[in-house]
């Protein structure tokens, strides 16, 4: 169970802290600070990053819930078969 929790946390961490995306965002923030990027472009980049994160989180949570349901169904089936034997 502890391993599953750690795996769950690692997946969430990868979704939230996408290294490539963070590097791109840092670059845009740096360019904004230098005056090379308009605030509109910075806002757009931030919104795109957050939109991607929310979409990935939604997909992962749905996958996780479905896998839990399947596990429960398999356990119920196993108990049923065992009771028949």
Descriptive tags:
single chain, 85 residues, mainly alpha, rod-shaped
How large, in whole angstroms, is the Cα Rg? Answer: 21 Å
What is the average of the pLDDT values? 93
Low-confidence stretches: none
The domain count comes to 1
Helix content: over 70%
Notes on the structure:
- With 85 residues, this protein is mainly alpha-helical.
- It has one domain (2-84).
- The protein has three helices and no strands.
- The longest helix is centred in the last third of the chain and has 46 residues, at 39-84.
- The chain is rod-shaped, with a radius of gyration of 21 Å.
- The mean pLDDT is 93.
Helix/strand layout:
Layout: H1 2-16, H2 19-34, H3 39-84
Helix pairs in contact: 1-3, 2-3
Short description:
With 85 residues, this protein is mainly α. It contains 3 helices and no strands. The chain has helices at residues 2-16, 19-34, 39-84.
């Amino acid at each position: 169970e502890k391993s599953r929790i750690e795996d769950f946390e690692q997946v969430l961490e990868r979704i939230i802290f996408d290294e490539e995306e963070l590097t791109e965002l840092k670059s845009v923030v740096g360019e904004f600070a230098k005056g090379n990027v308009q605030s509109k472009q910075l806002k757009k980049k931030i919104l795109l990053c957050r939109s991607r994160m929310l979409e990935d989180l939604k997909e992962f949570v749905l996958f996780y819930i479905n896998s839990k349901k399947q596990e429960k169904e398999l356990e119920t089936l196993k108990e049923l078969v065992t009771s028949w034997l």
